[in-house]
Amino acid sequence: MSKVRTHGAANTKAMVIMGRMLKSDDFNKLTRMESIDDFENYLMKNTCYSSILNDEEIEDKEIEYLIKSHMYKNYEKLYHFYIDEYRSFFKSLLMRYEVENLKLMLRAIARNEDIQDIRERLVYSEVFSTIDYGKLSAASDIGEFVDGLKTTGYYKAIINYVDENSTKILFYMEMNLDRLYFNQLYDAIMNLEKLDRKQALELYGINVDLLNIQWIYRGRKFFGISSEELFNFTINNGMKYNYKVLKDLCYMDLEKFRSFIRSSEYKTMFQGEEYLMERAMERYLFENLDVYLKSGNLSIAIPIVMMFKTEYEMRDLITILAGIRNKVGNVEDFLVRSLGRSE
Amino acid sequence: MAIRKLNMMNIVCKNECLDELLRDLILEENCQFIDTITEIEESDFSIGVTEKNADEILDMEDIVVLKEKKEVAEYLDIMDDMIKKLDYTPEVRREYMHGEHKFENIKNEIDEVADKFKDITQRLHGINSKLEGLDSLGFINKIKNIHVDFKDLMNLEFFTLKFGFLTKEKRKKISQNYDNLLAIVLHLGSYEEKELYIIVSPKSLDLEMSRILRSTDFVEIEIDRKYLSFPEEMVKMIEADRKKYEGELKLLKKSSEEYINSHKDTIDKLYSKIIMESKIDNVRTKIAATRNFCYISTWVPDDHKGRYNDIFKKYSNVLVAYKNSEEVSNKIPIPTFLKNLFFFKPFETLVNMYGVPSHDELDTTTFFGLAYIFFFGAMFGDLGQGLVFVGAGLFLVKKGMGNFGSLMWRIGLGSIFFGIIYDSFFGYEHIISKFFPLSIYIRPMENINSILLAAVASGVILLLISYGYSIFNKVKAKEFGEAFFGRNGINGVVLFLTLLVLIYGIATGKDVIPRVILYLLLTISVVLLVVKEPLGNILMGNRPLYSETPGEYYTESGFNVLETFLSILSNGISFIRIGAFALNHVGLFIAFHTVADMIGSTTGNISMFIIGNVIIIGLEGLIVFIQGLRLFYYELFSKYYKGEGVLFSPDKI
Asked: Which residues in chain B touch residue A138, judged by CB atoms under 8 angstroms apart?
């Protein structure tokens, strides 16, 4: 019974939201659009985005903003169905976007760009946010920025690095913000009920595995980071790779590393071009989501899957937009989902 | 009426007198500034166009919103920093804020004072940070028993030693990777909830090691070279130094206190002024300005209009215009200015907990207050315990918990009143009647049925009052459909009364009104309920008749009728709890009384009397407090009260 109480309403809501999502067919059509206007029109006339893209003239830049805020609206709908531990779990899950925003702003400050400019383009949800964007965007250097986070949990994670030299400061701060997010999310998962915990840990674990693979490979190949440092920044509690495997991976040479992954279930990571690694990772997750829908009857899995799917839909739409703008012919190769090439 | 009218005041003034004007208005404590630019964009900002003020309007084209002065916050920080280091809390006084002062002057004055105190603050800060540094060396106490000279250890030729803190998580990472690390990582113990480690690594790997440690959040503790020795010696040296510094600090504090005292006035004045400046700066972001003029929009209470004239007289070239709240664009929310009689003021908190009334809604605080005192008193009627409530309330008010305290003594009055009627003094009945033999007493346990009936009857009266409020609010909001045919409108009252008379008739067998008429009324009422939306729209001449498809509408209104009947029933019966709690109150004491009788001794009697009363006042008092709120929020507020307003909150210090 208690499962019904915790999940009944939220699962139904999540299923409804997923039911309204764009289908492959929609994506097939959208990838073939030639102008932003067509793109907009299609979304407006045929999809659930009609509610946010009303008839008024929308500027080119604005459409991305609107698509992103549509995602947050979906999340907010879900949020109100949960209480207590479950609510804090979702809060932790959404911390990722906050962390991403902080990282963007940090980068802007480090490069002496106008942070106000960035702020206007950041989308965030008032419901979950703990940070004061107004105050942060008034900061003129990293010290002030960090000061503006004083009342939040982020402060402790980065204050140690304020005096770091300017070439490394971003690296350390970003790594620590990410780590904070993963630790918090893990703690939140551990507070869930048994079955939910199991499912959430699985999804979390797969995500962590993929991120670790990416981190080690890139850190090695592009940044020449030492094995010890690589290991120190790996994320704990992966699904398949415990610390022993991770350690081996950190000390493996690149060729061996590649073949190791190729012979594992994460082989798709190295099947495509190297620059598409991130997409490969997302595609792997995306394609594994439906498994949870089938098995996850009344559980936390359905809302999580919905959140993943909403995000991937948002990303794909924005990728297509970029494709149209830059006249990229094979935009479907860059999407998270793989589209059956129906002609 | 408890909701006072607010006016929008639009002001145009010269740029140079803006700060001064804002200061005067803020000190009045009755202005809630709003974003002028929103008002201007709604083409709402009203200054009559005459030849005289053509200048003021002429360059409104290139209007901008004023920005914060970053310097104000900076100088506030300087002040805060200084008084923190001096360990002094300045007195903020309004009279220091009045008068003419420019921020430029305040800046200079702060610079001057900071300069004067620079020597002291720096010395204080110096000693304090030295003491803090010594605190961080406290861990040496933990290794007191090791007989190794740290001087030798720290000066090793081929190895580097580092002390510092690691998080548990990172410590685990390091231990998992021991086989690859060319370092010894030793756990020294926990110190102030952090894990202390000593790390030994070859000097040739210093660079790598420092990078690795950086990736683990390692916080190193620096040890001053002069302390390096055997740990036991080190502890002694550190202690000696601590004593020395503490002595210095004491002396310095004494002399600084004298110095502060002689400059107390200056600091207080400056601090008050900079607080004011920062408030002005806050408001400034809502002001729109052109090259020469500033435009201010602010809500002010209607009856305050005249008071500002004196302020405006001081400035030349100030244009002021007032608008009724109805004339303001509907994109700007109108705040609600509550003003209730002293006696009912504390109840605003409880009403606002549900929602602040909208500016055009009837304020329900007085009704709420009276009824709440009645609820509480009827459920918790006891002369003695009521007196305790009154006493405790007055005590809390004195202790500074004004809001809750004043609520408490008011509901205590209710308890006293009903306590007298119930003839109950600290749970003992028949005591009051012994001293004052009157015929007014109704003891709940002896009159169970009449108490329960009276409870429902009082509920019916309160519900009728709620219907009244509901109808009034709806007519005021021009929702005539709802007001006449809705379930909380006139139709609802008719339905409610008809059902009451019908039930009365069935229960007693005496028909006040012939049944046929009652059934007819019922039918008409139900039909009206079903068709209220289209009917309302026809009468008002609105089209379309339905806000959804007729099919959907009628399904919904079918259920609506069902729910109406259910809620009338449950609303009415809900009030039984007033009687039930009155009984329960007596019952609970009877239980304690019985226990006391079983104990038999006088001590037992007295202790049961005290325990019983404490439990009843604490526990039952809380329950009744909540039940009273519940009755109001669910049964009454849901009928008529929306509470979608925003409180009027004037900008003040």
From this structure: 70
Cβ <8 Å between B212 and A229: yes
CB contact under 8 A, A229 and B215: yes
Q: Is B133 exposed, middle or buried (0-12, 13-18, 19+ CB in 10 A)?
A: middle
Q: Is the bond preceding residue B90 a cis peptide, omega within 30 degrees?
A: no
Q: How many whole angstroms separate alpha carbon B380 and alpha carbon B628?
A: 11
CB B435 within 8 A of CB B397: no
Interface of A with B (CB under 8 A): 138, 160, 164, 168, 172, 175-176, 183, 226-229, 231-233, 236, 243-244, 247, 251
Interior/surface letters B290-328, b for 16+ CB within 10 angstroms, e for the rest: beebbbbbbbbbeeeeeebeebbeebeebbbeebebeeb
Q: Which residues of A164-197 are buried (b: 16+ CB within 10 A; e: fewer)?
A: beeeebbbbbbbbbbbbbbbbbbebbeebeeebb
Closest CA to A289 of A277, A313, A300, A305: A305
For chain B, the C-alpha Rg in angstroms (whole number) is 37
Quickly tell me which residue has 């409804």 as its tokens: A16
Distance CA B387, CA B403 (A): 18
By Cβ distance, the residue of A168, A227, A233 closest to B180 is: A227
Cβ pair A172:B169 closer than 8 A: no
Q: In the numeric block, which tokens belong to residue B441?
A: 């007493």
Give φ, ψ of B385 to 5 degrees.
-65, -35
Q: List the beta bridge partners of residue B647.
A: B336
Choose the mutation target among B170, B175, B176, B194 for the interface with A, i.e. most A CBs under 10 Å. B176
d(CA A288, CA A296): 13
Pairing between β-strand B194-202 and β-strand B184-191 as defined by DSSP bridges: antiparallel
Residue partners of B547: CB distance under 8 A and separation at least 6? B533, B553
CA nearest to B178 within chain A: A228
Residues B440, B444, B448, CA angle at the centre, nearest 5°?
120
Nearest CA among B460, B373, B335 for reference residue B3: B335
Inspect the interface and report whether the beta carbons of A233 and B170 lie closer than 8 Å: no
DSSP letters spanning B566-631: HHHHHHHHHTHHHHHHHHHHHHHHHHHHHHHHHH-SHHHHHHHHHHHHHHIIIIIHHHHHHHHHHI
ipTM score above 0.85: no
d(CA B497, CA B484): 15
Residues 6+ apart with CB under 8 A from A305: A14, A18, A289, A290, A292, A293, A296
Cα–Cα nearest to A293, from A90, A78, A19: A19
Contact (CB<8Å) A232/B219: no
Q: Which chain B residues are closer than 8 Å to A244 by Cβ?
A: 176
Q: Are B616 and B585 in contact (CB under 8 A)?
A: yes
Query: What tokens were used for A304?
Result: 């999580």
Q: What is the nearest CA distance from A247 to chain B, expressed in angstroms?
A: 7
Cβ–Cβ gap B180/A176 under 8 Å: no
Q: Which of B169, B170, B208 sits opposite A226 (nearest CB)?
A: B208
**CA dihedral angle for residue A83, residue A89, residue A91, residue A95, rounded to 10 degrees:** 180
- Per-residue pLDDT 10s for chain A (343 aa) are 577 777 888 888 888 888 888 888 888 888 888 888 888 888 888 888 887 777 666 776 778 888 888 888 888 888 888 888 888 898 888 888 889 889 988 888 888 887 777 777 788 777 777 788 878 888 888 888 888 888 888 988 888 888 877 778 888 889 889 989 999 999 999 999 888 899 899 989 999 999 999 899 988 888 888 888 899 889 988 888 988 899 999 998 888 988 898 888 888 888 777 777 888 888 888 888 888 887 657 888 888 899 989 999 999 999 999 999 888 878 888 888 887 644 3
Our CA dihedral for A8, A10, A11, A12, rounded to 10 degrees, sits at 80
